[in-house]
Write a structure and sequence with these properties.
This protein has 308 residues and is mainly alpha-helical. 51% of the residues lie in helices and 3% in strands.
């Protein structure tokens, strides 16, 4: 906590105890770097300043505003949680971890983070950074893989929270993992908890001999995955002109926007991608029948797709 007092970043969600703003931040921060999130966080709250504003908005608008953050399903889950709070809790934010866990799209980490960062409860929860710090401090080397299960780390996390200081402790733990006790290059030589770390000095030797892993910028984007093409479909739907928003786009035309090498033979595959997006609330299908027959050959069927 002393380290955090000196090195902690001044982040907008650390200046508030508003559970709605904490919820928005925590959903955006999932699998997304802090520096990228800040601008989106501010823009999102400018457009949807309250829980009620987000719940009442067209889902298509929420998805459009999410453009560039990736993992678009998070936008839908965020609005579903807001809607549940408005409809099922009369707009009053649940305070307990159990109640928060019951909201759509809210997992154990997010529930714990809201209970702690909005309501200042001494709650234990772990993300990647917190898990790494706790494992190294109390268990030992976590390379090439952790030796303790998440349940054991959570038990440690609950035991070590200083009473009445859960907000500062958990913020510090997250920040320490993000900036100091990093995955590949922890600053062990100047570490303030070096003397009581179960990993020091062994972790330095282990990491020094670890082979360099392939990075995304070394090998280029993984364009063969359905997740990549799901994102391409949602991006294409976002770019539809306003006069085409309700009508949507024909599946054939959508395919040419998603893949440069798209052909009629790809229609069954694309239809499957769109169906998955429909199930997840990221797209709507207006359908007569699939535009291909049982053998996958083109037919006169029509499928039009748009944002929900």
């Amino acid at each position: 906590m002393a380290w955090f007092a000196v090195h902690g970043r001044d982040l907008p969600w650390r200046r508030t105890r508003d559970p709605y703003r904490i919820l928005v931040a925590e959903i955006m921060l999932q699998q997304t770097q802090v520096d990228r999130v800040i601008a989106y966080y501010d823009a999102f709250l400018e457009r949807f300043p309250t829980l009620e504003d987000l719940a009442a908005a067209p889902t298509s608008e929420v998805i459009r505003l999410w453009a560039g953050l990736g993992y678009n399903r998070r936008a839908v889950n965020l609005q579903r949680a807001a809607t549940a709070i408005v409809n099922e809790h009369s707009g009053v934010f649940p305070r307990t971890v159990a109640e928060l866990r019951a909201l759509p799209g809210i997992g154990p980490y997010t529930a714990g983070a809201i209970a702690c960062f909005a309501f200042e409860q001494d709650v234990a929860f772990i993300d990647t950074n917190m898990r790494r710090v706790l494992h190294r401090l109390f268990v030992g080397v976590d390379v090439p893989a952790p030796t303790a299960a998440d349940r054991a780390i959570l038990e440690i996390a609950a035991e070590v929270i200083p009473t009445g200081q859960g907000w500062t402790w958990n913020q510090a733990l997250i920040e320490f993992g993000a900036l100091h006790c990093t995955a590949r290059k922890p600053a062990c030589v100047i570490c303030p908890v070096q003397a009581c770390c179960a990993t020091f000095p062994a972790i330095q030797t282990v990491l020094a001999g670890r082979p360099r892993s392939a990075r995304a910028d070394d090998i280029g984007p993984f364009t063969a995955s359905n997740r990549y093409f799901r994102g391409r479909v949602v991006d294409a739907l976002r770019q539809l002109p306003d006069n085409a928003t309700e009508q949507g786009i024909d599946l054939h035309e959508l395919g040419t926007k998603v893949r440069d090498d798209f052909s009629e033979q790809d229609l069954p595959w694309l239809y499957g991608v769109v169906q998955g997006l429909h199930r997840d609330g990221l797209a709507l299908i207006a359908e007569d029948r699939p535009p291909y027959d049982a053998e996958g050959a083109s037919s006169s069927g029509t499928v039009r797709v748009r944002l929900p």
